[in-house]
Amino acid sequence: MRTVLIVMVMIAGWGAAFSQDKDAIEKRAREMVVALNTGDKEEYKKFIEANYSAELIAKKMNQKVVGPDGESTQPDPDSGLSSKVSIFERLHNDLGKGKVTSIKQNGDKLDMEVAGDSGATLTFGLTFLKESPYLINGLSVQMSMGR
Q1: Which option is the CATH number for 2-145: 3.10.450.50, 3.30.420.40, 1.20.120.1200, 3.40.190.150?
Q2: What are phi and psi of 123, to 5 degrees?
Q3: Distance of alpha carbon 54 from the chain centroid
Q4: What is the torsion angle, in degrees rounded to the nearest 10, for the CA atoms of residue 77, residue 78, residue 82 and residue 84?
Q5: Which residues of 74-101 are buried (b: 16+ CB within 10 A; e: fewer)?
Q6: What would the pLDDT profile of 22-52 be if each residue is shown by its tens digit?
Q7: Which residues lie below 8 Å from residue 56, measured CB to CB, with a gap of 6+?
Q8: What is the pLDDT of residues 83-100, one digit of tens each?
Q9: Full-prediction pTM beyond 0.85?
């Protein structure tokens, strides 16, 4: 009987830790939308510095544009913090004020849909570091209009 009780306590403790991880990851994702909604470069910068891993900040990003006449991929000419701030600016300009409409999390990955007052919807694919403080370590964004 004593062995079963110990195992039950260990399982309950693991579940609580996993729940905290999940909550921290979701909170960080929602804070991204709060930062985007400000329209303020300094707020973007603060969010990125506090929530992105150093590897993601340093990484060059690609932009794939799909339009009526085909698609093209444009590498971001810069890397680093200023490049990420510029991405936030473009996202804010496309979205306007956004509201989270859906969040689906699977381990260290999270998909979040944000509907904007511009009529645009952004779907974020976020990957987080697997250990606390669960910084954002990967990012993809897909935009659709008028849905």
Answers
A1: 3.10.450.50
A2: -115, 115
A3: 15
A4: 80
A5: eeeeeeeeebbbebbeebbebbeebebe
A6: 899 999 999 999 999 999 999 999 999 999 9
A7: 84, 135, 136, 137, 138, 139
A8: 999 999 999 999 999 999
A9: no
